[in-house]
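User: For documentation purposes, I need each entry recorded in a consistent format: the amino acid sequence on its own, followed directly by the corresponding structure tokens. There are two entries in this batch. Please keep commentary to a minimum and don't merge the entries.

Assistant: Recorded as requested. Entry 1:
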Amino acid sequence: MSMDKVYLNDYEKPPYAVKSIDLVFDLHETKTIVKSKMKITRLCEPSRPLLLDGEELELLRVVLDGRELHESEYELSELGMSLHLLPESFTLEIENSVNPEANTSLDGLYRSGGIFCTQNEPEGFRRITYFMDRPDVMAVYSTKIIADKRAYPVLLSNGNLFESGELEGGKHYAIWKDPFPKPSYLYALVAGDLGCVNDSFETMSAKKIELNIYCDKGNEAKCSHAMASLKASMRWDEERFGREYDLDIYNIVAVDSFNMGAMENKGLNVFNSHYVLADADTATDENFLGIESVIAHEYFHNWTGNRITCRDWFQLTLKEGLTVFRDQEFSSDMNTRSVQRISDVKALQERQFVEDASPTSHPIKPDSYIEINNFYTATIYEKGAEVIRMIHTMLGEEGFRKGMDLYFETFDGQAVRTEDFVWAMQKASGFNLEQFTLWYSQSGTPEVDVTTRFDKKEQRFEITLSQSYLSPTQSGQKPYFFPFMLGLIDRNGKEISLKLQNSQNQPFIERGILLISKESESFVFEEIKEEPVMSINRNFSAPIKLHTAYTLQEYAFLMAHDSDAFNRFEASQTIAAMVLHTLIDAVQINGPMALSETYAEAFAKVLLDMDMDMSLKAASLTLPSVSMLMQERKVLDVEAIYAARNFLKRELVRRYGAEIRVQYDSLNVSGEYRLDKAAIGRRKLKNTLLSFMSALRDESLAFAQYEHANNMTDRLSALALLANSKTQAREKALGDFYTRYKSNTLVMNKYLSVIASSELKETLENVKTLLNDEVFDIKVPNLVRSLIGSFARNALHFHAADGSGYVFVSQKIRELDKLNPQIASGLAGAFKDYGRLNEKAKVLMKEELESIISVEGLSKNVYEIVSKILGEK
């Protein structure tokens, strides 16, 4: 297989256009017959061939304008078919067969769990039939599905149901027609014996839309939250962006075997069941919120992704970054905005910042790739959303909405570029975004040093911001342009009115925004009577890393007084990280460790603040994660990080255990499970407090919570804590959980993750044992991510000193690469810290990386990731 790179600069417009494609599927488990009939127009000189992508297909016949072609009249290869000397307009019919049962990559048409399903983004359609499988080839699709009625009573595809009926031999058919042109990656087909939950939605123009969620029979009751989330997202998109749904029917199908979270196929969304099925007994609060977000995300794609799609795959963030921003805004409106922002930024910092600092770093708009599946990343999605958010911050809600309206009006029905989106924003607002577009082409996380100077006599306060760029994969970067939200707080905790000296920023400073565009620049604030404390990058207005000379005392002040809820949280994390890094240094030299009194007092103020939002309070009390601490260490010492975190937790409990217990008891009351902001906040705070109390290795409280829990949030929180102990309570709880839920695959994902995430030294052996358990199946992506993926994210054991973690994960990558390269390459990303290991660990990891890359027949997916990691100097 070729490992050649694809380059953005090599893009050429498609030489042929496909006006329509009519598909007929005669479904069979091992030999499905696919017939396509395409109306095609040549847009190039006659000598240029028509190249159709096709992989793992058995060609049966080719018919051009009614005449069957001899095999000498076309050329076949492992990658497709080429036809020469074609007329200007013609009809091309192709018949081929595929084997869905053998398709373990879950790319194209596959059969799993008794269900036929497709996944075509980005390049799966070529595994169904021969086609120009690229996003800028947009055609009108119709589909006829033929299948055994008893085994597959439900037959679904894109668009609206046009016709259905009975056939001989116990078969039946359904014809679906989608009137909107779309690229092949948005094509979908599902057939199975499925249960269904039905509802309807009336749009703002009084059009009634039929809504259906299909799932395995018996799970219908777990679809109610997903349905409510769908209806809420449809209403929200009408109110916020004026976008109305355009078909007569909207279908969602939940399947267990799916490589992604969900797929926005036009009118037929296919979802990983993890993001559809939920009830209080089997799903956590986090699961419920995740369902709400992902249901909305896929629905919002109807306009930002489907009606307007990508010209090529380098533009992926055009649809994904924009749609993540939209789903984040939806979740903020549905829940508590500040808490949602904290959640979104934590995910960015823990996943995308790590990616930006690794050998796999790339811009949100890459300029090359070997395997496009490797670029469905936190950079494309989450950082891409932050880029959109910065535009929103600078333009304001009204200006951004005008830009969105112009974008929809101008490009509806087209495959476009990121430049087209930026053009719409500039055109509608008159705001110059030329320098801002560097965010699309430059990789890495900008770092900003902030220094200050106060002139008491002149009552002036000067702030200087200096940018630096430390991308591991690029050099010669230019200064970024970004909004920098800030506030100045006096020593009494009150906001100071902002007045800039001689600045074009004045219209923006009225909104608390500085516009940063130079490598280094200073801003002078006037009429400042006493030296203030800065609250900077409020609401995380730009995805940057900040460096200040702030002391623990100043961060403690911000924890107590900052009016920006996100920055109060950020101050809590920064001060805790400063304390933890001091403790980590002490562990490494076997020095004495002590609890910082400044931090202890700041922690207590948050703990004892009974007026604080409980979700915000829980987030502020929680210590920085191992992942966040690892990012700031030049050479990784994972054991020292764990030791420091555990020490700090224990000392805080020894100091404030009584107060923690009183609050825990006040929250640990029985009652009906509710899914509202207040109830979610109470559970979040309760379980945060429980995690502190468990630091002293008294598991009685966690076990009592496990036994009496009436919801999965409380039960799983307790179980995860018990999994770190070597007690009878641990064995009893784990045994009960397994017995209670072993027939529920979604809950078993949680069980596998708990075992694989444990700090116990026998964790690796426990994971290996579970590989042979009846609940595990290596062909199911969710189970692989839950067991092997969770272990790979368990830094303590993945980075075990003897290299056993590296050996285990590399063995699984090699095994999975033969089954599902996408899942294998995802695991390979666990090795991205190779360059920051100590010399002994680096030798051990390098040995495993080289064993992977030397495998004969290694997929492009895994090769691209591992070769980048090994290429790091």
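Entry 2:
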Amino acid sequence: MNFCIIHSCFSVKQINQEDGPNAAPLYSSLKLTLIMKYFPKMKNLLFLTTIFFLITCGNRFDKGENIADSAPLTHYVDPMIGSDYHGHVFVGANVPFGAVQLGPNNFYKGWDWSSGYHYSDSIVMGFSHTHLTGTGCADLGDILIMPTTGDLITNAGTQENHLNGYASLYSHDNEFVEPGYYSLLLDRYNIKAELTTTERVGVHKYTFPESAQSRIIVDLKEGIADVAKKTYLKKVDNQTIVGYRISNGWSMDQRIYFALKISKPIEEFVIYNDSLRLNEAEEEGDALKGILNFKTNAGEVVLLKVGISPVSTENALQNIETEAANWDFDAYHTKAIELWASELNKIKAEADSTILRTFYTALYHTMIAPSLYNDNNGDYLGADKKQYNSKTFKNYTTFSLWDTYRAANPLFTLIQQERVPDFINSMLELYKQEGKLPEWHLMGHDNRVMIGYNAVPIIVDAYFKGFKGFDTQLAYEAVVKTAMRDDRGVDFIKEIGYIPFDKQHESVAKAMEYAIYDWGIAQMAKDLGKTEDYEYFSKRSKYYKNYFDASNGFFKGKNADGSWRKDFNPITSSHRTDEFCEGNGWQYLWLVPQDVEGLIELLGGEKAFIKKLDSLFVIKEKLEEGASADISGLIGMYAHGNEPGHHITYLYAYAGEQWKTAEKVRQIMKEMYTDKPDGLCGNEDCGQMSAWYIWSAMGFYPVNPQNGAYVFGSPILDNSEIALANNKSFKIIAHDNNDKNIYIQSVKLNGMDYSKSFITHKDIQQGGTLEFFMGSQPNKAFGSDENDRPKSIIY
């Protein structure tokens, strides 16, 4: 039985509330019609009984019942969520953490096309094999493939006149995407494109009309906001071509090698350099396009397998031979679904269908990056552009660490425990190659676009959670030496204890980030018995106080002569040219997750702290023109659309008013996350925006991403279960949970009363059951006792 057809029959349409009460029977009938169309001879009783059971299960999901155990979890994932507004998510086919992200490219039109695709668009240039997801900068889009018919046009065209190129219009009505699969009808050519992948191979299926002028265009000029510098193409035989693309963009000197195998013999292979036809079957240039010409009958399927490699075309071919040896597209599609289902099953949840779609799509989005950056034989490209090989770990790239250290990487320590050592070993190898840990590593290059040495908290967190499989002494050496480099303001930190506002942009933001990382280094030094280092970095972790102006109660820029910057306004933001990074004074006031007690003291004690925190959410002033576009998802001046504020709502628990965290967290989950294309209020940022929702939906969050404590909020899931190592699990039950009962009344851990307003990683790792008893009115006593509050210590 063809699994892919069956799967499509049961995924005909996601029923929304607005579809009405009669929608489920209608779509059930449609499902059955499709099944009988494809399987007219399979009308025996057993088959029909099975179909009836599956349709019934499908209807249960459509009606919004809690059936996460009976429906495949991939059914709840809609990769279109976050593809509109400023979400910037990748839309296409891939497998978890795979090297290939195979999907459509629109013409690049600015920030909202950073992933190459935006839901508002309707013109496709082709399908490329690498994409970022949720980032604020654009790059990749390598090895663009476009099937066409008719007269040959070698250029893609433009947004204003796509008919001058080979680009095509498309409609969302003829577009479908699910984990591991993407399909689109190209209106201009009446060609149906279907895509799936393995880890390192993109598998294409194109259904052509009858044409004497059918072709595949391989365009090495086009990318996403980058510039091809050197390209190469070679025809190996009538069904194989190889090549490479070297480009400059966000990742400088990015190198990607590929091999393409086609199921149909090529009748003619022609190479163009931009629009100039070349004469040989092997060419090098700055903008090569390969044209694979052939004839097709109506409905003829042409398959492609495109393997990629960071080091050679030979390895790209080997990746195809290892991962995609045959031409069974449906088998690769099925395997991709199975891989996604396995990962999604690490957290089983119960809630209504809308919440489940939001939750499992968020979980899906946390597993696109980091991405593999090696070949099946272990070869990979170092940051020094030398070739390396490792059989002991898998090398990764796409480290958006300024974003992900806060919640995505801590989430990995729960549900990606087998990958955490690989992530850290990848970072340590980069340290050995460059003399520093990565900041924003992408395809063999650290673009350093964000501030901070933000690999440090990820390594510290893994160390204290007991992860093995990496060199602890090398890790400690790496965090210390990276923190002592005399660049990006650290020289000022070492010399005078702060970064002067009149010497560097983003001075306050840098120093406050550094203080977070230095706290982690201090704790690691203490645990390793390195007392001198502990004392030094502990001192540096308090340097955030050097920016606090007690006269107005904010952190702000301080000049080299010790004077405060003039004309300070906590609302004002000048994108990356003032003392903050993608934020303002109100948002950076709270960036002290490593020493919340110290922040409370600075602000005048618990009552003053609470009053100031309350005011953050009710400020009615508006951002001025020119403010950073990253300041989005506003509630007052709280900005959920950017990462530095993600912990803020959970700070109430440190002052004994956990119930206020519950109010704010529920509001954010309901207003800032939906199951629609515009369902994210800001950049997804390689999984961080979604990781916040995953944690919060379960009921807690890692305020300090290095200390192993998770602060309680308000679970939106009725039940959830985390699969742990050694066949253990941790269950979370929210009794009497609904839209009104948002407040925690009491908690039990493994059947025993539990008064703390947080839980530790160690508690979860032991397995067991956490029970929240919810109510419509706050229990202000819960978590109010000093001994029940989270502390700035290692747990």
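Summary note for entry 2:
The chain is about 30% helix and 20% strand.
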